[in-house]
Amino acid sequence: MELNFTPEEEAFRAAVRDFLAAKLPDRLSAKVASGQHLGKADLQEWHAILNERGWLANHWPEQYGGPGWTAIEKFIFENECALAHAPRTVPFGVNMLGPVLIKYGNEAQKRYWLPRILNGADWWCQGYSEPGAGSDLAAVKTSAMRGVDAQGDHYIVNGQKTWTTLGQHANMIFCLVRTNREAKKQEGISFLLIDMETPGVEVRPIITLDGEHEVNEVFFSDVRVPADNLVGEENKGWTCAKFLLTYERTNIAGVGFSVAALEQLKAIAAKQTKNGKPLAEDPAFAVRMACVEIDLENMKTTNLRVIAAVAGGGVPGAESSMLKIRGTEIRQEISSLARRAMGLYARPFVAEALEDGFDGDPFGPAFAASVAARYFNNRKLSIFGGSNEIQKNIISKMILGL
Ligand SMILES: Cc1cc2nc3c(=O)[nH]c(=O)nc-3n(C[C@H](O)[C@H](O)[C@H](O)COP(=O)(O)OP(=O)(O)OC[C@H]3O[C@@H](n4cnc5c(N)ncnc54)[C@H](O)[C@@H]3O)c2cc1C
Q1: How far does Cα 359 stand from its chain's mean position?
Q2: CB-based contacts of 290: which residues, under 8 Å, 6+ apart?
Q3: I need a labelling partner for 217 at 20 to 30 A (CA). Which of 15, 160, 373, 399 fits?
Q4: b or e along 252-265 (b: 16 or more beta carbons within 10 Å of the residue's beta carbon)?
Q5: Of ligand 1's atoms, which has the minimum distance to the CA of residue 386?
Q6: Distance (Å) of CA 151 to CA 141, 148, 305, 402
Q7: Cβ distance 241 to 205 under 8 Å?
Q8: Residue range 373-384: average pLDDT?
Q9: DSSP-assigned states of every residue in 213-280
Q10: What is the DSSP string of 98-149?
Q11: CB–CB of 119/51 below 8 Å?
Q12: Is 389 in contact with 364 (CB distance < 8 Å)?
């Protein structure tokens, strides 16, 4: 097992850094670094820059537009982007649906939808969770009844999805729908692509703790969907669903995000004072910062160990659950320490400070607003992508055999 990067990998890292220095707009990285809101246009701008360079769909095979990177190159790329404060790529089309279409879609679907993901013609969102189906995803109830009439073969969809991230920007949603109520629950599910502009689709916002409109509820009332939008076989959607989840957990440890957040925490702790001295010199605070830094270093090594195993032909099993748990705990601890370091400044929630054009002292209330917002927003990390409790169940089954 080799945990150091090879000279070729170091050269790749340098090429990524050069690209980011030349192409990542300062305006976007400043927004990410200060925790300001990224609008649809900001996210589309970064999507287009990556696509132009051919580095957008880095999980796709080369024949469909992927760059042909190894697992280690993907790791390097994602971490360098986080360290440079690049916006996150919206994952739903590129990282989730794309690989599903490549594996399970028919030729016509690949030809039509894949280029539209790359060029940004479609903004996808993920319609998996329902009010009664989260951890127990196979309990989805949203129904799709097949029928044929003068306008053709189609499904009529009724039901509700929830927690639909960035669904307010989306024109398309991929959904798990129930096409057979009689079968065992995993066997009656299909994977359907639905145009959000079809009559009967309604999107309602959910406002989260940080005051953000990031997630939504999506309602379907007699929504007509062409049968051509079925991916894979009818009633075999669970296979697509599980395959997609392995991609949802890609880079779940988020090492680069934690390294960037830790640097920011250190800057705050050097600036904020306690009893006339920088907070970084306060023994109690310094110990907590040191502990999280050690945990992060350990996790980085574990992450590289898993990647090295995958590069050697292995399949990540319980390790990805471990990385998810530790990665999200570390990110939450860093944002919690940052909030503590801001002290009273982190108390008021100054919503305007998260918008374009707000001009304030970066270590005063303006910056504190984003620290508090990030703390609240990061609560989600241990819930989505399979909650941390569910990951512990996976570990106990796979490793302890319980
Ligand atoms: C910010 C955010 C964005 C999201 N975006 C999307 C999206 O875009 N699309 C989408 O489809 N979904 C999305 N989700 C949904 C997410 O996948 C679910 O929230 C998650 O799977 C948990 O399901 P649930 O919320 O229904 O909680 P539940 O499944 O009801 O769980 C509630 C609690 O019980 C625990 N629990 C449940 N079952 C077990 C068990 N067997 N053993 C031990 N503990 C258990 C859970 O860990 C959790 O703490 C998002 C969620 C959040 C918070």
Answers
A1: 29
A2: none
A3: 373
A4: bbbbbbbbbbbebb
A5: 21
A6: 26, 8, 54, 52
A7: no
A8: 90
A9: EEEEEEEEEEEEEEGGGEESSTTBHHHHHHHHHHHHTTTTT-HHHHHHHHHHHHHHHHHSEETTEEGG
A10: HHHHHHH--HHHHHHHHHHHHTTS--EEEE--BTTBSSSGGG---EEEEEEE
A11: yes
A12: no
E strand or H helix at 156, and its extent?
Answer: strand 152-162
At residue 306, what is the residue type? Answer: V
Q: Which residue among 324, 379, 384 is best mutated to probe the pocket of ligand 1, counting the most ligand atoms within 8 A of its Cβ?
A: 384
- Are 271 and 390 found together in one domain? yes
Last residue in a domain, options 64, 89, 114: 89
CA distance 396 to 375: 29
pLDDT digit string, tens, across residues 77-127: 999 999 999 999 999 999 999 999 999 999 999 999 999 999 999 999 999
Catalytic residues: 248
CATH of the domain at 141: 2.40.110.10
Do 161 and 269 reside in the same domain of the chain?
A: no
User: Do residues 391 and 260 both lie within one domain?
Assistant: yes
244-249-250-252 Cα dihedral, nearest 10 degrees: 160
Question: Residue 191 and residue 179: Cα distance in Å, rounded?
Answer: 10
Cα torsion for 298, 299, 302, 304, to the nearest 10°? -110
pLDDT in the model for residue 63 = 96
Q: Same domain for 134 and 85?
A: no
pLDDT at residue 365 is higher than 60: no
b/e for 203-218, b at 16 or more Cβ within 10 A?
Answer: beeeebebebebbbbb
Structural domain range at position 29: 7-89
Ligand 1 proximity of 169 Cβ (cutoff 6 Å): no
Same domain as 330, residue 202: no
The total number of structural domains in the chain stands at: 3
Chain centre to alpha carbon of residue 8: 28
Q: What angle do CA 293, 297, 300 make, to 5 degrees?
A: 135
Q: Say if CB 215 and CB 64 are below 8 A apart.
A: no
Q: Where are the alpha helices (DSSP H) in 6-88?
A: 7-23, 26-34, 40-53, 71-83
pTM of the model: 0.93
Report CA(60)–ligand 1 centroid distance (Å). 27
Ligand 1 pocket test: which of 130, 194, 383 has the largest number of ligand atoms within 8 Å of its C-beta?
383
DSSP state of 133: B
Query: For residue 389, which atom of ligand 1 is closest to its CA?
Result: 47
Q: Tell me which residue has its CA closest to atom 24 in ligand 1.
A: 134
